[in-house]
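Figure 2 data, in text form.
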Amino acid sequence: MKKYLFIIVLISISLITFAQKEEFKVVTLHAPNMEVKIMNYGARIHQLKFRNTDLALGFDSLDQYIKERQNFGAVIGRYIGRITGGYLKIDDNEYMLQIRHHGDCSHGGSPNFGEHFWDIISHNDTTATLRYVSPDGENGFPGELTLDVTYTLTQKQDLRIDYKATTTKPTVLNIANHNFFNLTGDHSSDVLEEELAINADSIALYDMSKRVTGKLGAVVGTPFDFRTPHLIGERIEMSNSQLHITGGYDHCYKLKTNGDLSKLAARLIDNHTDITLEVYTTEPVLQIYTANGHKGNMIGKGGKPHKHRNAICFETMHFPDSPNNPQWPSTVLRPDETFHSTTIFHFN
């Protein structure tokens, strides 16, 4: 098939025809000190400018997003994280989901929601709503799922993300935006000197295969204790079995916010740029990932390589493998219900 390189045109809405006749669009949102560009490919945050500094990792072209198959800025689903063994049981019905090389269903299988073109339902200067309809049986998941994601920029320097979903059959749903933040403004620089605080007392523990065990571990006395602020790089190389499994931070924190959108979930500060990012969410947990898998071989925006630990992700979500761990909050969505979730990224 003939390949086309699509360069993202930085105008309010760009329309390009993909090789398979998909319409590629970019919507630009504006607010004081902020500009955000949303792609309809994966409902992705392509650019997130605060004080003219782009804080979001990504690529310069659609072709790169498709080729590299990275989750930069995308909405991931139907189930972000792993479902162990791809086994799912809802009521008395059992399902085998698509599994990948590690034997689990990861991030909803392939392609996940971040690898589809979404419909732009509405947009204006400050808000945009995108929709993806996941067919019944996609990657093994039951029910036709209709998911709306609304991005809004506010006068308070917030990027607000609202999720709304319905289904035709009982299913599971665990979705999150997978943006990679770098507050330095230099996407080839690591984030180890950025200061992190997390409102959580415990994390979900992994076994040696990076599958959650169903147990929580207290953060006190460990490198995972960010109840008071610490530099990301301060303890990331400490001898710790959980850090050894993941090669850095890549863990799910059980938040103490109880779904209260007014309570701070996490705060990130870059003391060189003086930029602060605060996270608020209705979700029960926060997955922290410090780009441990980046090796410098991917070239990002402006020709900058994505070097080791050059970003941090704040994935507001439910626990991985919740369907097989009934002690954790349920991710089941039924036809008579409407799923709602909100996450706010506040900048100052």
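Caption note: Residues 281 and 343 are 4 Å apart (CA to CA).
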